[in-house]
Amino acid sequence: MLGLINIFRCQKPVQSPVCGLIRYFHKEIIPVEWKKPSIGWTKLNFDGSCKSLTGKASIGGLVRNHNAEFLLGYAESIGEANSTVAELTALRRGLELARENGWNDLWLEGDAKTLLEIIEKGKKARCMEVERHISDIKSILPDFNKMMVSHIYREGNGAAHKFAQIGHDLDHPTIWRLIPPDELVTQLLQDAQGTIVLRMKEMKDKSY
Predict the structure, then answer these.
(1) By the 8 A CB rule, do 123 and 131 touch?
(2) Distance between CA atoms of 144 and 4, rounded to whole angstroms?
(3) Is residue 138 part of a domain?
């Protein structure tokens, strides 16, 4: 019995295979799916990317219609910035492009849940730079007729993430209209087909 107890302690630095197996089964499986907007709406997915070693950041995003057809994509390197600023810059750029193209009923979706809550619920940010970016975004929102905001896990935001990754290698801001880059074709097709991606999330212990 003592030997069994020692196995379940999972002491470091030696990790028992049993420990890894227990952690695996102690995870919640969440199905993640990108969903099309309703007829008359367009959907903007956005993402920011920051490389930890260099501090260089980039942004990306895309707009699709109710048939999941690709309307526009964008990517850009923005120099040194943290992940929060990158996410906000990606959102602001996407909003500017949506406004320019007259997409007035817009569904915003990203994987930065806290930032979306700040924008949707009007919460204040502690950082002055972040608050400035949020103010810029809020000044654009009244230009739209209807607006919807939602969070999606990274697994469902893959297309926007790929655009943000492309941004790292660009020398100037780039916009794609109607025809996406080749490396996005498979991802866009999977989204349009409603492909479900499974996310593994750590389950919290319940107290009884």
Answers:
(1) no
(2) 62
(3) yes
The H-or-E segment that residue 148 falls in is: strand 146-151
Give how far Cα 67 sits from Cα of 38, 107, 151, Å: 9, 14, 20
pLDDT digits (tens, 9 = 90+) for 74-122: 999 999 999 999 999 999 999 999 999 999 999 999 999 888 877 777 7
Task: Evaluate the omega torsion of the peptide bond into residue 180 and state whether it is cis, within 30 degrees of 0.
Answer: no
pTM for the structure as a whole: 0.83
CA distance 24 to 73: 37
Q: Among 156, 161, 159, which residue's Cα sits nearest to residue 195?
A: 156
CB neighbours of 81 closer than 8 A, spacing ≥ 6? 48, 50, 55, 57, 89
The number of domains in the chain is: 1
Give the CA distances from residue 204 to residues 7, 20, 26, 76, 87, in Å, rounded to whole numbers and listed in that order. Answer: 21, 16, 9, 38, 28
SS3 58: strand
- Residue 13 domain-assigned (yes or no): no
d(CA 193, CA 66): 13
